Each structure stands twice: as structure tokens, then as C-alpha cells.
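Per your request, structure below.
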């Protein structure tokens, strides 16, 4: 994950938002042959997130714009609990 974040920060690429498994899932133990074992929960969080960002599955946006939008629409409005429910990693995203 740190390699991916370093690449995003250094290259600011356009990102295709994808509610299925993608490159970020490569090392996740929930990734079983390209299918997320926890997909029902993840799809709900993805839907909540995209809805707050007013984006869609398949939207294309560059990394810095996505970060700015997420900060403005979710973090600064204290909506992380609403979007991400009981995710155990939330402390790292605040
Ligand atoms: S939980 Fe599912 S969607 Fe999230 S990183 Fe793991 S495999 Fe990917
Ligand atoms: S709290 Fe962070 S890691 Fe958990 S679902 Fe939300 S954005 Fe993802």
C-alpha cells in the first residue's frame, strides 16, 4: 500500500474509480482470485463514499483532486463514520 501511495503522490495520475477488486487489493487477504471475500460490506462503503463525492463507479479523477474532494466532502464534514461504518482502519483515515 505504501508503494501505491508513493506512486499516487509523486505522479498524480488519473484514477478510474472501481468498486470491484483492483491493483490496491493485490496483497489483501480478502482478495480471493480477484474477488473480494467481503464484497457486500465494501460495496456498501463504496456506494456511500461515491454518493458523498457525487462521483460514480467508473468516474475518472486525478489523485490530488480526489484527495481534495474527499477532504472537503467527507473529512471536514465529519462524515467518515457515516460513510465507512465500523471499519477497523478508520483511525488511519481521519
Ligand atoms: S477488502 Fe476487498 S475491496 Fe478492500 S482491499 Fe481487500 S479485497 Fe480489495
Ligand atoms: S475508514 Fe478508511 S480504510 Fe476504512 S473503509 Fe473508510 S476509507 Fe476505507
Amino acid at each position: 500500500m505504501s508503494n501505491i501511495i508513493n506512486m499516487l503522490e509523486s505522479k498524480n495520475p488519473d484514477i478510474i474509480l472501481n468498486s470491484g477488486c483492483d491493483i490496491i487489493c493485490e496483497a489483501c487477504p480478502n482478495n480471493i482470485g480477484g474477488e473480494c471475500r467481503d464484497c457486500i460490506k465494501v460495496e456498501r462503503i463504496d456506494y456511500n463514499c461515491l454518493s458523498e463525492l457525487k462521483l460514480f463507479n467508473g468516474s475518472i479523477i486525478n489523485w490530488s483532486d480526489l484527495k481534495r474532494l474527499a477532504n472537503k466532502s467527507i473529512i471536514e464534514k465529519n462524515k467518515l463514520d457515516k460513510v465507512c461504518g465500523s471499519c477497523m482502519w478508520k483511525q488511519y483515515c481521519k
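Residues 39-53 form the longest helix (15 residues).

Regards,
D.
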